[in-house]
């Protein structure tokens, strides 16, 4: 089988390369590769000039043959082209002028040089008296592009000359910048002969360092160069063998140690792009002692993503003798306050001095996972990972009184709670999984309450992968606090370094702090007194370490991990191997069809789902408990799992697709200003016209840069209470109304298939998370030319067309033609153009070698 890079198709038969589809894509690719030959004027031969204006002013870009201008909705824009014969002796014939396609509202009326027209002679050093005019107008915000071709023939030798210009109109409410911004970072190595570690360096993260002989193997994606030693090649082959076999009882520890080292290597490589060179730092004195303020552009947008307590290295600029470790103490917008440098650093600091900075990932989370993996067998938890089948069936005791009547009335949820409380799974994990909105977290809450009621001596821990998910579970549990008398009923255990601004006010009295100033660390002796403790998987390691150092026995009787599919298996093992009793109950809840853990290089190893259907006695799949407002039909990724019927009334109200022809920009993440403007328009109408509360609106987008661009626009109109987040941030959350900005849609009708890039949203799990966050209505904003290349989006958008909830540009109604027909016409136009012109390959410019100073 072959891979066709032109059509972006894998495992194609040899016959594929003779198909019309491949020929079409090949023509489009050749056009893309060679169009630079047509976009500049031919010196001494022919030239094309353009004049265009709008209410925003004149054109702001005429680079690479692109004539760019901004205009308001419904505003008429007129492109006027002037043709000139630049030769001093040769006559030129103007034979043909045409738009490459007639879509996107570009109109060339009364074209005197259309098909079948008589060629016009253009004498040497003369200009065409007629003006070639193209008009444009559109009511829809978006980016519209159409090329125009000018065909000339030299009269004396019949040599063809073709020039091309691309007209680009940004239809927008207010003019914005549409050119890429240059990233301030560079991949310049920052190193020194001597490293002086931070004064508060924690030695606890040094036990499972990446083996030195494996670093190069991981960095080269397990593919060593030929010059590598035989020992390195053998080691690389052993690692590849471990990954190819997959998880077994015999290689379990080796497998995950290597996975974590591999992940760490990729993160280290990726973070190098944020190295800074020749920057200033400013000394300041604070509660943390002597610190330094460092300007970090993009920090507010998590590029780079720094957390309090993270490590970085700093050294004098252009000096490689010594480098110092520092700790991030405070983060304020684009500033990081760093401290805990060794006293010797003061000898190198002076006001105005320049320094080089290298950011470094905190190894603490990885070390915690390594410790957990290493302890699976020594602490007797192999039964959780490799459970044995048993014919012994525990009796399920029915529960008479439920806290939540909705759980009592739902057969699957009631069944799950009764089995968990009865301990039917024994030491194997009890699994709860199902689509969004099927009540997995509600079931966990009911089970926790029933366990405390059954026996107050139970010690229950609920862990999640994120603080937001932990806060959500805690908020649901405290609704029943008045039914329990204990003072030590529930603890929301937080890390000092969490984002305290997101802690719900209702949880303050159950938390070990409400901000960094009044944070109180929880000692393990206090920890064991609580009936219920809710924290993150990573933070649970602190209690495990204290318990281990003091020789205390594991005391957790029931461990619940919510949104378990979002966490990696080693992360889930942190509370298991550090705190859970050997015969205690483990419950995993989540949706394997939604997002898994965030990995630095997701394609390096086959994904390993932590959730799956196992024995009936310990697995419940929730099917049919969707609310009416969620019944939008069967999602392609859930197949026949949902027992729901399509209700015309609710679907018509639920889904709106607003398609906008647009492109994205890239700095350190993708963003799309035109989609931001559409989002702002929808938010205004929802709040002012439909009286929707801001806290009921959520905005989901795949890229962090788009998150901050939208936040900035909303803040300008005092709508900053609206929650904006990435797809990952919205896992497990719901809002009454969700607006989805798909962002990455940098494509047009002249792109071959491999150029259509959807990025994250082409992933089934991200698609599922994005479209299932809304309780009442979801509004999707994106470019149809790209979205419809993916079958999920194509099906989804077609359903919206049928229901009348599709707005904006429609690729299915291109002047009465189908998209495929339009593309075929375009190929028919450009193919002769490529065949008749002999295109010389570009000459490589060789740079002169500069002699090094001797």
TrEMBL record:
<keyword id="KW-0067">ATP-binding</keyword>
<dbReference type="InterPro" id="IPR041677">
    <property type="entry name" value="DNA2/NAM7_AAA_11"/>
</dbReference>
<dbReference type="GO" id="GO:0005524">
    <property type="term" value="F:ATP binding"/>
</dbReference>
<feature type="domain" description="Helicase MOV-10-like beta-barrel">
    <location>
        <begin position="274"/>
        <end position="359"/>
    </location>
</feature>
<dbReference type="InterPro" id="IPR047187">
    <property type="entry name" value="SF1_C_Upf1"/>
</dbReference>
<dbReference type="InterPro" id="IPR049077">
    <property type="entry name" value="MOV-10_Ig-like"/>
</dbReference>
<dbReference type="Pfam" id="PF21634">
    <property type="entry name" value="MOV-10_beta-barrel"/>
</dbReference>
<comment type="similarity">
    <text>Belongs to the DNA2/NAM7 helicase family. SDE3 subfamily.</text>
</comment>
<protein>
    <recommendedName>
        <fullName>RNA helicase</fullName>
        <ecNumber>3.6.4.13</ecNumber>
    </recommendedName>
</protein>
<keyword id="KW-0378">Hydrolase</keyword>
<keyword id="KW-0963">Cytoplasm</keyword>
<dbReference type="GO" id="GO:0016787">
    <property type="term" value="F:hydrolase activity"/>
</dbReference>
<feature type="domain" description="DNA2/NAM7 helicase helicase">
    <location>
        <begin position="530"/>
        <end position="599"/>
    </location>
</feature>
<dbReference type="GO" id="GO:0005737">
    <property type="term" value="C:cytoplasm"/>
</dbReference>
<keyword id="KW-0547">Nucleotide-binding</keyword>
<dbReference type="InterPro" id="IPR027417">
    <property type="entry name" value="P-loop_NTPase"/>
</dbReference>
<dbReference type="GO" id="GO:0003724">
    <property type="term" value="F:RNA helicase activity"/>
</dbReference>
<feature type="domain" description="DNA2/NAM7 helicase helicase">
    <location>
        <begin position="410"/>
        <end position="481"/>
    </location>
</feature>
<feature type="domain" description="DNA2/NAM7 helicase-like C-terminal">
    <location>
        <begin position="668"/>
        <end position="783"/>
    </location>
</feature>
<dbReference type="Pfam" id="PF13087">
    <property type="entry name" value="AAA_12"/>
</dbReference>
<feature type="domain" description="Helicase MOV-10 Ig-like">
    <location>
        <begin position="36"/>
        <end position="166"/>
    </location>
</feature>
<dbReference type="InterPro" id="IPR041679">
    <property type="entry name" value="DNA2/NAM7-like_C"/>
</dbReference>
<dbReference type="Pfam" id="PF21633">
    <property type="entry name" value="MOV-10_Ig-like"/>
</dbReference>
<keyword id="KW-0347">Helicase</keyword>
<dbReference type="InterPro" id="IPR049080">
    <property type="entry name" value="MOV-10-like_beta-barrel"/>
</dbReference>
<dbReference type="Pfam" id="PF13086">
    <property type="entry name" value="AAA_11"/>
</dbReference>
């Amino acid at each position: 089988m072959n891979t066709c890079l032109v059509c972006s198709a894998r495992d194609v038969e040899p016959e594929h390369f003779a198909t019309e589809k491949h020929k079409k894509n090949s023509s489009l690719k050749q056009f893309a590769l060679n169009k630079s030959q047509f976009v500049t004027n031919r010196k001494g031969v022919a030239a094309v000039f353009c004049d265009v204006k709008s209410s925003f002013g004149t054109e702001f870009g005429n680079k690479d043959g692109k004539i760019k201008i901004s205009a308001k909705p419904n505003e008429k824009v007129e492109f006027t082209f002037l043709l000139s014969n630049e030769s001093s002796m040769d006559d030129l014939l103007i034979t043909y002028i045409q738009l490459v396609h007639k879509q996107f509202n570009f109109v060339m009326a009364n074209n005197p040089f259309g098909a079948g027209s008589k060629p016009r002679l253009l004498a040497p050093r003369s200009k065409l008296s007629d003006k070639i005019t193209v008009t444009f107008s559109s009511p829809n915000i978006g980016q519209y592009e159409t090329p125009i071709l000018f065909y000339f023939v030299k009269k004396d030798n019949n040599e063809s000359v073709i020039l091309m210009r691309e007209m680009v109109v940004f239809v927008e409410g207010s003019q914005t910048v549409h050119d890429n911004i240059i990233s301030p970072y560079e991949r310049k190595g920052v190193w020194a002969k001597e490293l002086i570690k931070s004064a508060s360096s924690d030695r606890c993260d040094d036990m499972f360092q990446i083996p030195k002989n494996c670093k190069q193997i991981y960095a080269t994606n397990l593919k060593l160069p030929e010059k590598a030693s035989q020992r390195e090649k053998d080691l690389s082959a052993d690692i590849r063998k471990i990954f190819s076999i997959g998880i077994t009882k015999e290689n379990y520890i080796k497998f995950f140690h290597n996975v974590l080292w591999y992940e760490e290597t990729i993160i280290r490589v990726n973070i190098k792009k944020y190295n800074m060179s020749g920057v200033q730092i400013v000394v300041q004195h604070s509660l943390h002692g002597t610190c330094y303020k460092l300007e970090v552009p993009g920090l507010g947008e998590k590029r780079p993503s720094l957390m309090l307590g993270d490590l970085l290295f700093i050294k004098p600029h252009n000096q490689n003798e010594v480098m110092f470790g520092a700790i991030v103490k405070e983060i304020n917008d684009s500033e990081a306050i760093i401290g805990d440098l060794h006293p010797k650093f003061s000898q190198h600091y002076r006001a105005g001095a320049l320094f080089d900075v290298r950011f470094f990932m905190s190894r603490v989370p990885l070390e915690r996972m390594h410790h957990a993996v290493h302890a699976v067998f020594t602490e007797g938890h192999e039964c959780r990972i490799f459970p044995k089948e048993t014919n012994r069936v525990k009796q399920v005791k029915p529960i008479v009184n439920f806290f939540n009547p909705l759980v009592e009335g739902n057969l699957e949820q009631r069944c799950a709670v009764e089995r968990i409380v009865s301990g039917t799974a024994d030491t194997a994990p009890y699994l709860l999984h199902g689509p969004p909105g099927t009540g997995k977290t509600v079931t966990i809450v009911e089970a926790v309450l029933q366990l405390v009621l059954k026996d107050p001596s139970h010690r229950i821990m609920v862990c999640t992968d994120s603080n937001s998910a932990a806060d959500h579970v805690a908020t649901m549990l405290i609704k029943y606090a008045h039914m329990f008398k204990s003072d030590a009923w529930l603890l929301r255990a937080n890390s000092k370094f969490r984002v305290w601004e997101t802690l719900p006010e209702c949880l303050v009295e159950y938390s070990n702090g409400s901000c960094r100033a009044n944070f109180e660390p929880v000692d393990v002796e206090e920890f064991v007194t609580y009936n219920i403790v809710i924290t993150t998987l990573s933070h649970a390691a602190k209690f495990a370490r204290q318990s281990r150092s003091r020789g205390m026995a594991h005391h957790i009787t029931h461990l619940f991990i919510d949104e378990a599919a979002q966490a990696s298996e080693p992360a889930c093992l942190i509370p298991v191997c550090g705190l859970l009793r050997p015969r205690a109950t483990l419950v995993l809840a989540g949706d394997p069809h939604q997002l898994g853990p965030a990995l630095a290089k997701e394609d390096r190893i086959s994904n390993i789902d932590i959730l799956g259907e196992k024995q009936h006695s310990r697995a419940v799949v929730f099917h049919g408990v969707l609310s009416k407002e969620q019944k939008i039909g069967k999602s392609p990724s859930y197949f026949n799992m949902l027992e729901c019927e399509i209700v015309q009334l609710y679907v018509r109200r639920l889904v709106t697709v607003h398609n906008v022809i647009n492109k994205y920009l890239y700095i350190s993440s993708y963003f799309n200003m035109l989609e931001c403007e559409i989002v702002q328009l929808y938010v205004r109408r929802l709040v002012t016209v439909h009286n929707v509360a801001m806290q009921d609106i959520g905005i989901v987008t795949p890229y962090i840069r788009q998150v901050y661009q939208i936040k900035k626009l909303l803040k300008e109109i005092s709508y900053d209470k609206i929650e904006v987040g990435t797809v990952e941030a919205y896992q497990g959350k719901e809002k009454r109304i969700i607006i989805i900005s798909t962002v990455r849609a940098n494509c047009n009708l002249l792109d071959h298939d491999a150029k259509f890039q959807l990025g994250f949203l082409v992933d089934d799990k991200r698609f599922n998370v994005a479209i299932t966050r809304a309780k009442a209505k979801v509004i999707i904003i994106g470019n149809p030319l790209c979205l419809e290349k993916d079958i999920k989006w194509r099906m989804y958008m077609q359903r919206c067309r049928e229901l009348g909830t599709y707005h904006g540009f429609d690729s299915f109604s291109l002047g009465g033609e189908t998209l495929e027909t339009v593309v075929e016409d375009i190929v028919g136009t450009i193919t002769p153009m490529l065949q008749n012109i002999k295109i010389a390959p570009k000459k490589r410019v060789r740079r002169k070698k500069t002699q090094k100073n001797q």
